[in-house]
Amino acid sequence: ILGGSMDLTGSGTGKSGILIGTGTGTTGTFTGMADTTNNTLTAGPTAIVLLGGSLLKVQGNASEGINLGSGDTVKGDIIINGSVEALPSTANGTTAGNVTGILLSGTTDGSLGVGSAGIVEGFGQGGQGVVVLGNVTQSIQNFGSILSSGTQATPSTDKGNPTPGSALVISNNVTHGIYNGGPLTTSDTTNGPGSISTNGNSPALLVTTGFLDSGSATPVKIGGFVDKGGAGTYSLINRGTISSSPQNINGASTGVEIIGTSDTNRVTLSDGFFNTGTIGATTWAEYKKHIEKD
Lesser CB count within 10 Å: N end or C end of the chain? Predict the structure, then answer.
């Protein structure tokens, strides 16, 4: 449980704010415990909780805020009610920083949940919010904000800014679906929209096979999530906002991309896609006007 601040800014690269695993090739299992006070997401055990107002901040190229190692298993939910920020070594630099807010390369035997006050951010060139490379046996739920951004502040130019990666990448099975929360009815003022957003050229939400290595790709199956508004069971439910709006002119823009890498390595949404929220992709181009004089 993190209730305060964990600050890993400064020099250095390849950092992990919270590392689940040894990082040495020896694998294992981290088992959470029952926590009905801080985990209202599921009735299962809780592995990691960032409380409201807490901050986990890490800086350095190739760093992650939370890192579940390949081959390792976490038994329990990961709950983010605070903020996770991953920053590159050099702010606003165009050299690949490749930082990730949350990287789940191993098996998550539970759910990943971002609460209404939760924020997961990856900044800089190639920065990503959440990347899921291992199996998730329960669900991925977002009621807060998952973001990838080239810069931390509004840039002063519309050219040459660092380009982040996707805000949310899913490249393995999620047994009980993906839910981006929001109002349950047209008159619902209690449940605000969850946000998945990027200002780069990669899709805000990407569901694909073989994200890091297409040569070792396997099929991806997203199971069903029971909609909190009573609409039924769907693999991907969006009641919030999924958006892409590049900072640089003439940039590609995609809200959601679901794509396999071959006929055998497909992405399957076993229960379909339900959307009552907003999915948007905007871009803009440079306009030049030519004036001829007599």
Answer: C
Tens digit of each residue's pLDDT (9 = 90 or more) over 133-157: 999 999 999 999 999 999 988 877 7
65 neighbors 120 (Cβ within 8 angstroms): yes
DSSP type of residue 174:
B
Average model confidence (pLDDT) for the chain? Answer: 93
Angle among Cα 230, 279, 285 to the nearest 5 degrees reads 175
Please compute the mean of the pLDDT values over residues 279-287 and round it to a whole number.
84
| Residue 220: both structure tokens together | 């991806």
pLDDT (0 to 100) of residue 215: 81
CA–CA dist 166, 132 (Å, integer): 12
Could you tell me what percentage of the chain is helix, strand and coil, using 3-state DSSP and rounding each to the nearest 5? 0, 40, 60
Please answer whether residues 2 and 49 qualify as being in contact, where contact means their C-beta atoms are separated by less than 8 angstroms: yes
Cα–Cα distance measured from residue 119 to residue 243, given in angstroms and rounded to the nearest whole number: 16
Check if the beta carbon of residue 268 is closer than 8 Å to that of residue 254: no
Q: How far apart are CA 233 and CA 231, in angstroms?
A: 7
E strands of 203-240, at which residues?
A: 205-208, 220-222, 225-226, 233-234, 236-238
Six token digits for residue 70: 């390949």
CB of 76 closer than 8 Å to CB of 104: no
Burial (Cβ within 10 Å: 0-12, 13-18, ≥19) of residue 190: exposed
User: pLDDT tens across 189-215, in order?
Assistant: 999 999 999 999 999 999 999 998 878
3-state SS class at 132: strand
Distance CA(112)–CA(106), nearest Å, equals 13
CA distance linking residue 66 with residue 20, whole number of Å: 8
One-letter amino acid for residue 14 of the chain: G
What residues have CB less than 8 Å from 263, skipping those under 6 apart? none
